[in-house]
């Protein structure tokens, strides 16, 4: 008797799902388990980073009497042209210097006394500011500085302070500035958190495109494995006409894997699929960092800044002055070690609107609003974002938003329709970044532990089943 066309179609489809899920699970099950378990660690311990508050707290007060040259004169003598926002005044080794980032992202240090471009510092100079108990070692690249964002400031002198927290400061040999700090707790927990979660072995992560391709393929295969398992689990589940053993045809661990996979498969799928999307496959989503051309247009044409411009800021306790421009107008932002800032002259909203319009000349400003509270698109998560913030919306095809700091005029980020879509496809399902839930601690923690624990159980049970299958094949083979 010939099988019906429907049965003839479904039988190979089911067989394909079973084989596909089995071998994809064997290939990616350990990765899935590592991802969900390491994700729990990342809820509480972020990857090491130097926050703005930490950076400012370690700067020495400016010696104003030794600042003999304004930025224009100093940079003219050194023959350097800074990128927009790429110039600041601070102390290095007891002397005031200009830290310069040029348009090709190269970093330079220029004496504020002579205008001379200064060379690299050695380990003894890096350690000098931190007392006799500090030790120093040289590092070019390690797990905490593996990203290419650190390339312009390599190599480093790592200064171990010898304190109870096991603090280590990464001092750029090129600029003499502290670019990163880590503690013993951060280093320990990140070996169980971000490093396995982000697939961060240093030799692989140092090769950006190879790393990105590897994560895309592994997470893509894992997504296919979870999706096939979810489809198979629903297909083989019987509630109205149960099997002899109940709703699942399997026994033992296979039964638990089936039932828990059907129950928690959708949440596991959302975690792994959103993780795949975080790698921006096909470059579907625009980055939030404004492109250099947009930043340059926002800053406007270069404006002269002489030594006299600093006189209004020459007060005790100031540790840094950043030189920025907004719509062709210089803005000097002074900060003390506690992070308190003052901008001279403070930009008005009209100036900020004009700068924003200059940044996207092909578009029209559709609306502006000042946010005094976080919303779905401007909120902190393991980082800090200032409030208030000015949001400028444009009517261009990309539906671009610019977020501006009304206190300093800084262009904080660019967010278009694709970036807002990524927020809901990646950040919302991957981190459960839904405003009401995320703010309701510890309810958010409980949900994350429940879903991650369920995902880990599904993955680990699949690993055991896969191992048993491979052992049987080996014995029969």
How is the biggest beta sheet arranged? Answer: 7 strands, antiparallel
Q: Pick out the low-confidence regions.
A: none
SS elements, strand count: 15
Strand-pairing-aware structural class = alpha+beta
Major sheet: order of its strands? Answer: 4-3-2-1-9-10-11
Rg calculated over all Cα atoms = 28 Å
What percentage of the residues does DSSP assign to strands (E)?
Answer: 15-25%
Q: What is the chain-wise order of helices and strands?
A: HHHEEEEHEEEEHHHHHHEEEHEEEEHHH
**What is the end-to-end distance?**
35 Å
Tally of separate helices = 14
Helix content: 40-55%
The chain-level mean pLDDT equals 93
Large-scale geometry: elongated
Please render the helix and strand layout as text.
Blueprint: H1 5-42, H2 52-57, H3 71-78, E1 82-92, E2 95-102, E3 107-111, E4 117-118, H4 123-128, E5 135-139, E6 156-160, E7 168-172, E8 178-182, H5 184-192, H6 194-197, H7 202-205, H8 208-235, H9 252-278, H10 292-299, E9 318-326, E10 329-336, E11 341-344, H11 349-359, E12 365-371, E13 389-394, E14 401-404, E15 411-415, H12 417-431, H13 435-439, H14 443-476
Antiparallel strand pairs: 1-2, 1-9, 2-3, 3-4, 5-6, 6-7, 7-8, 9-10, 10-11, 12-13, 13-14, 14-15
Helix pairs in contact: 1-8, 1-14, 8-9, 9-12, 9-14, 10-11
